[in-house]
Each structure stands twice: as structure tokens, then as C-alpha cells.
Amino acid sequence: MTLESDIKIESVLQEDRIFPPSTEVTEKARIKGFHEYKKMVDYANSNPDDFWGNSAKEELHWFEPFNKVLDWSDPPFAKWFVGGKTNISYNCLDRHLQNGNGDKQAIIWEGETGEIRRFTYKELHSEVCKTANALKELGIKKGDLVALYMPMVPEAAISMLACSRIGAPHSVVFGGFSAEALRDRLVDGEAKAVITADGGFRKDKIISLKPAVDDALSNNSCPTVQKVLVVRRTNENIEMQPGRDIWWHDLIPSQSTECPALPIDSEDRLFVLYTSGSTGKPKGVVHTTAGYNLWAHLTFKWIFDIRSEDIYWCTADVGWITGHSYIVYGPLSNGSTTLMYEGVPRPSNPGAFWDVIQKHSVSIFYTAPTAIRAFMKTGRELPDKYDLSSLRLIGTVGEPINPEAWMWYRDVIGGKNCPVVDTWWQTETGGVMISPLPGVTSTKPGSATFPLPGIQADVVDSEGISVRDNEGGYLVIRKPWPGMMRTVHGDSNRFRESYWEFIKPKDGSLIYFAGDGARRDSQGYFWVMGRVDDVINVSGHRLGTMEIESALVSHQSVSEAAVVGRPDDLKGEAIVAFVTLENGVESSDLLLTTLVNHVKAEIGVIAKPDKIIFTDALPKTRSGKIMRRLLRSLASGKEVSGDTSTLEDVSVLDKLRN
Ligand code: PRX
């Protein structure tokens, strides 16, 4: 991880508004009031083995009990619930059938084109069993990695649960990633099969998916991939390669609706999900079965204070961790009704979100600050046209939420009487780490408030010493927790170095740090300030600046590139690229478009630079390191401050300024 300077709080936010939970919310809540939360926190801290062990016994089904709660003998490589055997697909399906909830709605799905499909727990169980049997027929065995490259259709969730049912880890690749990005992930994960669709609908257009899979697999570039299972969604003409490609509708319907869930070792891999880091290619974050299941289950139950009658909707895509934990596994493990929506607000239906809430009487709504800011900009007239009175709780995830957006969300969408939960977490943490609890926490706009029970979060300096109240520092977790990532796929050194060795306490202890800066106020509230490494957050999508730089540099015209994030009212951050060209190449509008398209092809549309600035040279230190801090200031139109004495050539800065 590269950090150029210590964290500085750029604007010390003075936020005095505070919203205590209403008596009604507290009375009905599972965790009632601060004293109950505090009791849980104290218990978890003083007796973690009992806290986690009892939770695991109470909340999950075990084929075989575990004999040790946590093995931390080889840190940072944790083993949770050692010796136990469970199955997340069983926990999400079978046990609800046995508890008499087979006829309860498990998934309500609405497509962008308006069709609605519903699955009871019984129906979902049958579909998952059929798909699991089909995967077995295709030769998939326990331990084989299956990649998913799918639109937001029920078959995506069904496939995830089918994989976990037979112990085949899945690796979901967001459908907005390009063929190149897909290929990297297939190769790195050594995927045995890909589940995809002909295409998907997005913002009134059709996105091709199967052609991108063909492209990724071309020239035998992913030799491990033997089979491609294809869902029909958009009805486009696509090519099917005999022997390799099979239509979902040709294979699944005839399968048996029974497929016993395989007892899976607690520490067997459940999934690998690729995410961006400071350096190199995206890394495969590995999550294992029992610990992840418990953490997704518990956090979902606590934070959304879920009740049997709730219709819960998270607007994420299953391609991201939020979709894994809070569309599929958390809700289904709790036997809740989870709504999946294929669409997003779009020209033909700008009020799509509010329409869905009204139509399905959604009671819990979980979305990203970017979406809220976009609606804020167009005004309350639009949401005011819809009946949103079914809502009882609203949440946000993915990026810092500014207090204005928080207030707007609370007032306009929540009608001033829904608790707002701003949840901080990461792909690596498996589930939420810092969040208000509806019956407990007095919320402050813009603060994720307090760590959940069992999570020892802190704000520290580079030696791991807690900083004073209101001083900026690194957001860290001091103790292992069940949902923590176990390693980086194929690179345990990278896991150790990037997450556990960045903060260096004098006593040699290990502390988890994954890149965010934060401060804690005098009342103990956490205020997450965003990434302090070379990761940027664009509309809640996490991207490594180096990934975008490598994409740019891979173009023949580009000599060097430096990418930085610039604050953006709507997207949180926008991507600005400073590019120097090869000798003899002239900058032009055409080249600009070419480079933007090149990045789209290398990574995907989400990585498209908002601005490319051609320059003769980049500001570098005498040792040749690009001074991104200066570029960040320039990109955001700020005066360059701080030390510039290490610059090799100060005139570069003047030229860039002009
Ligand atoms: O910078 C933090 C930001 O999103 C990063 C994690 O991104 P990803 O792994 O893609 O997971 C996103 C969904 C959990 C974090 O390092 N982030 C996430 N939630 C918040 C946040 N920043 C501030 N407040 C949040 N609530």
C-alpha cells in the first residue's frame, strides 16, 4: 500500500444534529436500547469464544459441531469454528422448510422490462437443487470454482446457492466488467465453468454478456474453463459452442428437485470475490463457509432488525459484496423476503426505485449515497409522487454519505420516521462492521456511529496507537471476527502485507487495516473519511488508480499515466487521468475518445475516466515516484500545498497548472 502523507482531516465537519431512536422503534426492536447493546459488546469483548461460539450454535445449522471457536495460532490466517460442518445453502433454504416456512416468499424479482417472478422458500429450494444437480452433471465437484457473469436475474442467486450446496466456490464477476477483466479473473481463479446469460437489460439498453464470455475464452486463454451455462434473458442471437456451451433451459428443468446439501467444512472456501487494491491487478478476496455465514446472518438480523413480515430490498448488484451478503446470504439465512430488482432509475422510468417500493410495499430499503445524491439533485417532486409509507427502516452503504444527503434521505424518503443506518464495511470484512442499530443508536447525519458487538474498531496512527478524539487516523480492527477474509486467492503474502502489516505496533501485534481514514468524536462516534490509499470510490464502485493507469499505459500511444480521484458532488469521486504520450504522438480529441474507450475495453464502463489531461511530464520526486498528492490537488482545482521540495522539476507543476 502506498501512502504519501499522513492523513489530514480536510474539513472538520461540525455536525451537532442527533436523532435518538423513537420509543416505538426501541420497544419493538430486537436489541432494545444502549444498555443491551453495551451488554453484548462487553460480553463479546470479555468472552469472545462464548459470544461467537454460542452465536454460531444458535444461528446456524451444523451437520457436525465445531470443536474450537477460533484458531488464531498462525495470525493473520484465522480458522473459525474449527472441525464443524455446515452448509450455507442448507441454512438459507432447507431449515426454513423444516420450520414450516416453505410457503413464505423468499425472492421477489422484478425485471427492468416490468415482469415479476416470485419464489417461495419451497420453490427456491427446488430450483437450487435442480441447478446443483445440473452442475454435478457438468462435472463440477467440491472445490471447483464456478464463475458467474450475470445480469440481476433470479438465476444469479439460484446459481450461488447451487454452488454452495455442492461445495463449489463461486466467483461472481459484475456484469459491467469487460471481457478482459473477466478473463483476468477466470485465469486467476482457475474457474472450471462460467454461468452467464445471453445479455442483460440496463438503462433501457441491452448489454451483451455471452459474447464477452466468448471473447474472454478465445484463443484458449482460460484453459480450465470447460463449460458455459447460459440463461436466456434478452433473446439476442448468440453463438453456442458445441460441447462447451449449454442453455440453462435445456439442462435445468429436467433435473431432480432433490439434492442433499453437502456437509461443508467451516473453513472450506465459499467464494472468491475480486476487488481493487492499491497495487497490481484486482485481488481475489477469499471467504469461507461458516464464519461468513454467521457474520452475514447476524449483521443482517441486528442492523435491519428484521421481522417476519418485512419486504426487504437492497439495490446493489450481486456482482459486489453487498449483493452477496445483503441480497442473497444474509436475508435468506434469516428466512426473510428479499427483493431483487434488475433495473436502475433510467430515462424511461426515473422513479423506478420509488415505484418498486410502492408496488411491493417494501419496508426496508438499502441503497448507496450516490443514488440518494442523484435524487436530491432532481428534487423531491419525483419521490413525492409515490406512496413510500410502507418503509420502516432505510440504510446506506458503499461510500461516505454527506450530512445533507443523509438529511434528505431521512426526511424525503423516510418521511422523518424511519431510522437511517449508514453501514461501513468492505468486501474484505464480509459483513457490516460499523453501523447504527435501529433500537439502540442515536444517529448523527454522516456518521456510521459505532462498531457492532464483537468488532473492536479503532482509529490509530501508523504505530497502532489510538489517536485523540477528533484527530484523523487510520480505521483499523484490532481483533479477528468470523466474517473476515481469509486470504488473497493464490497470494497469502499479499494478504499479510497489504492488510496486516501496514500498521506497525511496537509490540509486533497484528492489526487489520484496509485503507480508510476516520476520526472518532468525543462521544465515540466514528466518521469514515474515505480511502487514504490509491483506491478510489466512484459511485460506490471501488477502483484501483493503478488498474486504470495500467489500462491507459497498455495503449500504444501512451507513455505514462497517473490517475487520481477528484471530489464529485454526485459520484463521490470522479476519475482524472494525467497522461503523457509516446514521442511523436500528438494529443487530439480523437485520441481522447480512443483512450476512454480503451479503458472501457480493458476494465469496464465503471472505470471510464471523467477527464483525461495530456501533459508533457508528470510531477515526480528525484527518485522517480509520481507525486499524486500534487495531482490530486490540481485535479480538484485546489492550490498545491505542502512540501514540493522533493520535486525533480518544479516547472512541471507550473505547466500543469496552466
Ligand atoms: O472506503 C470505504 C467505502 O467502501 C470501501 C469498501 O468498498 P467495497 O469493498 O467495494 O465494499 C463496498 C460495500 C461494503 C471502504 O473501504 N465505504 C463502504 N461503506 C462506507 C464506506 N465509506 C464510508 N461510509 C460507509 N458507510
Protein traits:
binds adenosine-5'-monophosphate-propyl ester; alpha/beta; 7-stranded mixed beta sheet; 5-stranded parallel beta sheet; 21 helices; single chain; disordered N terminus; 658 residues
Describe this structure as you would to a colleague:
The structure is a single chain. By secondary structure, the chain is an alpha/beta fold. It is built from 21 helices and 30 strands. The strands form nine sheets. The chain has a seven-stranded mixed beta sheet, with helices on both faces. It is globular. The two termini are 31 Å apart. Adenosine-5'-monophosphate-propyl ester is lined by residues 275, 321-322, 397-400, 422-427, 448, 514-516, 528, 530-531, 537, 542.
Which spans have pLDDT < 50 for at least 5 consecutive residues? 1-11
Rg to the nearest angstrom? 24 Å
* Strand order, sheet with most strands: 5-4-17-16-18-19-20
Number of strands: 30
> Largest beta sheet, briefly?
7 strands, mixed
Q: How far apart, in Å, are the first and last alpha carbons?
A: 31 Å
Count of DSSP-assigned helices: 21
Q: Mean pLDDT across all residues, rounded?
A: 95
Strand percentage: 15-25%
Q: Percentage of helical residues?
A: 25-40%
